Amino acid sequence: MTPILETRKLNKSFGAVTAAKDLNVKIGKGEIVGVIGANGAGKTTFINMVTGYLPPTSGEILMDGRPILGLAPRAITRSGLARSFQVAQLFPELTVLDNLVIALAAAESPHPSFLKPLHTKARVAKAEEILGEFKVGAYRDARVTAVPQGSRKLIDIAMAMIGNPKMLLLDEPTSGVSVDEKGDLMDTVMAAVHHHGLTVLFVEHDMDVVRRYVSRILAFYSGEIIADGPPDAVLADARVRELVTGHSDHKGAEQKGADHKSAEHAAAQQGSSVA
Amino acid sequence: MRLDKTELALVGLAVVLMLAGTLAAPGWLIFLITVALAKALVVQGVVMQMKAGLVSFGQGLFYCVGGYAVGMGGQFLGLNAGLVLLALGVIAAVVLAMVLGLLLTRYREIFFAMLSLAFSMILYGVLVKSQELGSTDGFNVKAWTLLGRTIEGGEQATHTVFILTVLTAATVAFILHRFYRSAMGMTCEAIRENEVRVEFLGLSPRWINYANYVAAAAVSALGGGLTALATGHVDPDMAYWTTSGEFVFIALLGGTGSVFAPFLAAIVFALVRTYAIEFLPNAWQMILGFTLLGIVVFLPKGLWSLFTRRAVAPVPSSSPTNARTGGVRA
Amino acid sequence: MLSFLAVLIDGTIYASWLFLVAAGLTVIYGVMRILNMAHGSFYAIGAYAAASAIGWYFADGTGSAGVSFLILIGAALVAGLVVGTLVERGLLRFMYGRDETLMVIITYALLLILEDAMKIVFGVNPYFAYQPYTALGRSTIAGLKVSNYDLVLIGIAVAVGLALWGWLERTNLGKILRAVIHDREVARAMGVNVRRMFTLTFLIGTTLGALAGALTAPSISVVPGIGVEVIVLAFAVVVVGGMGSIEGAAVGALLLGLSRAAAVHFAPQFELFVIYGVMSLVLAIRPQGLFGRTLVRKI
Known about the structure:
The complex is a heterotrimer.
Chain A: E1 5-14, E2 17-27, E3 32-36, H1 43-50, E4 58-63, E5 66-67, H2 73-78, E6 81-83, H3 96-108, H4 121-133, H5 149-161, E7 167-170, H6 179-196, E8 199-203, H7 207-213, E9 216-221, E10 224-229, H8 231-236, H9 238-243, H10 250-270
Parallel strand pairs in A: 3-8, 3-9, 6-7, 7-8
Antiparallel strand pairs in A: 1-2, 1-4, 4-5, 9-10
Helix pairs in contact in A: 3-4, 3-5, 5-6
Chain B: H1 5-23, H2 27-51, H3 60-76, H4 82-104, H5 109-128, E1 139-140, E2 144-146, E3 149-151, H6 154-181, H7 183-193, H8 195-200, H9 205-231, E4 233-234, H10 241-254, H11 261-279, H12 284-298
Antiparallel strand pairs in B: 1-4, 2-3
Helix pairs in contact in B: 1-6, 2-6, 2-9, 2-10, 2-11, 3-4, 3-9, 4-9, 6-7, 6-9, 7-9, 10-11
Chain C: H1 2-32, H2 39-57, H3 65-90, H4 100-122, H5 131-135, E1 138-141, E2 144-147, H6 148-170, H7 172-182, H8 184-189, H9 194-216, H10 226-241, H11 246-266, H12 271-285
Antiparallel strand pairs in C: 1-2
Helix pairs in contact in C: 1-6, 1-9, 1-10, 1-11, 2-3, 2-4, 2-9, 2-10, 3-9, 6-7, 10-11, 10-12, 11-12
Domain ABC transporter (chain A): 5-247
Organism (chain A): Xanthobacter agilis
Region (Disordered) (chain A): 246-275
């Protein structure tokens, strides 16, 4: 069966720093894949490349067997690969309802209508249903700036799911959320994921969260995938234990982390903007 | 077609304004309001872009194009029907905007502001060097006709342009009011708020900005055309950057909260200027400067925000992740 | 051949002037991320201050060219520092950290205020300070008559450029400023007093603007509105070179100066058009300007 998402020999370097090295990933329909790795291991770079935000240095990206490398993020979204963000990317001064209704209209057509009202009864009803599904209905008429962090992350993910994507990439869905809220948040997200039968890849630091939801783990270290397989096997892997989950030589891992901070810095300066 | 409150108010205000203008108001006031409303149309173009997060310091470009098209249509093309001349300005502005937009939509923030300013200054430079267009003095608009009647100046002309301007302004405001609530209008605001998200919703911020830029140019050109008909004269200062600065000023004075705001702000601006220039000729700009600072600090959403202090609903206090009951609201 | 040489000389002179006008603008933007619309007003204030001082010095009809140069520069320093301090302490420091576009609007308000303040202080009649210009006489270069004052202007522009460059690249203070330019937050975390750097930078920028005006005063009539005309040219230089870059401003000034001189000699109807035309062309090819950096938003 053709994988939904496949990358072949994907490489990315920022000057002398390698952020992705020969990434070969195949994700099949219905898989729930967790991505783990220290800060700067290349997880977000991977998502950014796959969704068209960062151009890889070399390699191939296929979606349903068709090459998508070089397409703009909007085209990749339209082809069915949606994503959420480490920091929720919303429209802060608009209301939560507006955020969702705009996303609904965007999913309907890439060419917004000039004169027909945006807030149709159908769209508002649909938006309310989604808000309910994600348990953020109470914020319907609040501006995003007044919504707490955890709920913003949920709205961010809800907006990514609005276009009925074939696959969803979640970049640290629980980052910035308090420990108590993490479980509830992931339960809500995963319930929606199962309800819509989505294929999901998500980046997560909390190994308990990962173990609980995923059928497969990709472990990143220094731009490479050092382990790929079922959770138990990957988390038991000696290199993963040493380099990712940090059960030995903690200092070494932090040193590496610092190196990759500079890689991210280089990324921020060298990449081209989305145009 | 069902009309909402704003649309009904627009129709009502237009009727009242036309009646009052025709029956009671003195000529100088009618003229002042006509020019203010025409300039407010240019400001509407600035506001359209402000809603998308872009500040055009060069909207005078399209004001000038609209004005010169009216003048040149009469002078060189032998056109004299007022509505045709206005349409000519709009077409010229749209064509120009379609070309410039290709470059400008790559820019944001101060780069957009400065580049739009530069384009306007290019036109200024060209006009100043064009002897056949009267160089820095500009030239007068020839007599024109409206629906077959010749308009040649005097009170009749003042009243005719006034009615024409009120009708045009009301129509544009009506359309803009709908536009701001459409998918397109709201997506423009979304671009201002977060362009990355708009892109990842599968839309092209650049295309949307482009369409908005061209539409704003058309609206501004109408303002330029009406100003030319009202004053009977055009000159290169229409494209000078301080003229555009004035439009930005009026846009900020009014704010982006309502389609009425630019009209209100333009009339206030024109009235205050009339008196300030008479009594404090060397302090007029200083008053503007302090007013602008005051707006930035105290009324960042413009004068209109004084009327709409209670716009956004209060935030519920309980966190919905804790409150398991927080579901769909009827 | 002769006209080619004339373009080269005129272009270099004009480029020197453009660089002097733009240097302060680009320094302020580079460090503070403020596109100072009121920069032209500091230019005008410098011109008025210089013209007043020169008028006073030559009041009895005599004086030396050398002293008058010192007076020009002294007037510029005093005007730039005094008005710069007033503006920074009285207004701008309360506005730091605001959105870049909003800062454009705030400095636009400042421009409006300063324009009228100058009318109130200096009146609306023209000021003249031609003495330093005429005192220096003219030279003949390959058959072309060139004002010596303009040649001195080239020297001053080069000196200002080198001084700025040396200051930023070779001194400790320059290093700190470059840290602020590179990453304000990191600089702050490393203990740099960013606000003090802002004050310092703003004063340097305004003084440079005033200096440009003071040095221009002898070759023009100083009237209301000269700053408004100048600011747009300065923007063009800075945008072409890449906002915030000194070497960019130098290259941008040369490119625009030579283009304009060429237009004046070969196609005078394009004189005003050419500067913005070249600017649009550069930006169409290289949106961030010749020496600009692009930044991608982190998500």
